[in-house]
């Protein structure tokens, strides 16, 4: 490994790879290569990016304007900021007097960069975070030292959920000034929605506790009767006063991860601080890609894409859950979002009864999965001992259905053979 070759006098520290990337690196050591048709990636963190039944055609070219060769505004081009604001007002703010405007939006080169800008802009604050949750949050809280992490465990016994009243009591007791969570949740697929989400936003308003809502899977909703996305934006009263910061982009819901277009929707004052952070962190997103993104958010096209995503991915979720349950994998709660299922393998035979063991055995069958303990967000390794998520695995149904089925077939054979 490169880290082993680094001279101890070098000025750099050793850094671990994040979650899914860590799995890819380990798989490469046993022959995996990105795009290799012989491997099935049920660990991937991106949706299928090709043509999708019912979706609009995929763009195959982007035109350049003369101005695209120059720097753009750190906060993003006006046309895209306006399109994002209109997108939220159309989906979530109809009937509300308070509406989002371009000044409530900052564009970034992807979601992790948006989160990094946020981490750089946060003042000294007790930041509540949950487990299991998105792996990159750990590095965010480790890198920005003004953040004081406050752990809130979501256990499998309660379906990886927390009652709003219990959360409200915890915020007051622990003096938590901000909360960070993915909703729908990566990896569990749990969703905070309806009156429960209304309670979260109301609590944030009453407690003056800033909600940092990672909503990158907002359109992957499979609850019965769901016809649209979920967002905390629907329950904001005053867009410039309520302490609600929303992260989303084209990466997941519109299936353009390679475009690296993310955004933050928040009160104007917060957008100003995130822009200042971006001025030294990154300098702004690509201008030609931003201009192309405006077309993606055209209402008719956007709805056609996201409706197709819900239909196709709901079918893949049903297949994945049914097949994995037949193999003996157990799923606490009722996962109804994202394109992941998060299951316990503790009742499978050794060595398949831990996430690491399952992953390593699956490599032998040319399938990638992600150990559940990678989602046990633990800044600076503050919590000692084994992870409570040791026996969990995250399975992705992001690939096309045919590939998902091949991967599940291989896992079924592996489990039937005991490894």
Fold and architecture overview:
With 419 residues, this protein is α/β, with parallel strands linked by helices. The chain has two domains: 2-52 and 303-416, Aspartate Aminotransferase, domain 1 (Alpha-Beta Complex), CATH 3.90.1150; 66-302, Type I PLP-dependent aspartate aminotransferase-like (Major domain) (Aspartate Aminotransferase, domain 2), CATH 3.40.640. Helices cover 36% and strands 13% of the residues. The chain is built from twelve helices and twelve strands. The protein has helices at residues 2-5, 19-28, 78-92, 111-121, 136-143, 164-173, 194-207, 268-281, 287-296, 299-326, 355-363, 401-416; strands at residues 40-41, 105-108, 125-131, 147-153, 178-182, 210-214, 244-249, 262-265, 340-344, 367-368, 370-371, 392-396. It has a seven-stranded mixed beta sheet, with helices on both faces. Strands 9-12-11 form a three-stranded antiparallel beta sheet. Helix 7 (194-207) links the parallel strand 5 (178-182) and strand 6 (210-214). Helix 3 packs parallel to helix 9 (287-296), helix 4 (111-121) runs parallel beside helix 5 and helix 6 (164-173) runs parallel beside helix 7 (194-207). The protein is globular. The mean pLDDT is 95.
């Amino acid at each position: 490994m490169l880290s082993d070759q680094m001279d101890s006098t070098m000025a750099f520290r050793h850094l671990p790879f994040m979650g899914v990337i860590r799995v890819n690196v380990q798989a490469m050591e046993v022959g995996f290569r990105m795009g290799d048709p012989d491997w099935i990636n049920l660990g991937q963190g991106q949706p299928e990016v090709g043509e999708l039944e019912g979706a609009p055609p995929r763009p195959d070219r982007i035109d350049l304007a003369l101005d695209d060769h120059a720097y753009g505004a750190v906060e993003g081009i006006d046309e895209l900021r306006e399109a994002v604001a209109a997108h939220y007002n159309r989906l979530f703010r109809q009937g509300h007097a308070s509406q989002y405007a371009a000044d409530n939006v900052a564009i970034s080169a992807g979601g992790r960069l948006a989160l990094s800008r946020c981490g750089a802009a946060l003042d000294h604050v007790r930041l509540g975070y949950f487990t299991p949750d998105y792996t990159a949050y750990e590095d965010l809280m480790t890198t920005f030292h003004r953040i004081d992490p406050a752990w809130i465990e979501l256990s499998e016994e309660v379906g990886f959920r927390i009652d709003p009243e219990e959360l409200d009591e915890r915020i007051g007791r622990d003096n938590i000034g901000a909360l960070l969570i993915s909703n729908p949740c990566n990896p569990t697929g749990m969703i905070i929605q309806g009156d429960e989400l209304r309670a979260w936003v109301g609590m944030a308003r009453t407690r003056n506790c800033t909600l940092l809502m990672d909503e990158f899977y907002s359109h992957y909703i499979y609850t019965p009767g769901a016809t649209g996305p979920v967002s905390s934006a629907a329950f904001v009263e005053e867009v410039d006063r309520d302490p609600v910061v929303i992260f989303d982009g084209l990466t997941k819901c519109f299936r353009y991860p390679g475009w690296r277009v993310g955004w933050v929707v928040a009160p104007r004052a917060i957008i100003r601080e995130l822009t200042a952070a971006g001025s030294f962190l990154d300098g702004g997103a690509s201008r030609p890609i931003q201009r192309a993104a405006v077309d993606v958010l055209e209402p008719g096209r956007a709805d056609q894409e996201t409706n197709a995503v819900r239909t196709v991915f709901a079918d893949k979720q049903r297949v994945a859950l049914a097949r994995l349950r037949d193999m003996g994998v157990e799923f606490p709660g009722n996962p109804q979002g994202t394109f992941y299922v998060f299951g316990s393998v503790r009742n499978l035979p050794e060595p398949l009864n831990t996430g690491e063991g399952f992953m390593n055995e699956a490599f032998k069958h040319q399938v990638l999965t992600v150990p559940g303990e990678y989602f046990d967000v633990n800044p600076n390794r503050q919590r000692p001992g084994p992870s409570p998520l040791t026996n969990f695995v995250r399975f992705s149904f992001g690939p096309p259905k045919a590939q998902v089925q091949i991967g599940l077939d291989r896992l079924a054979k592996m489990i039937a053979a005991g490894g």
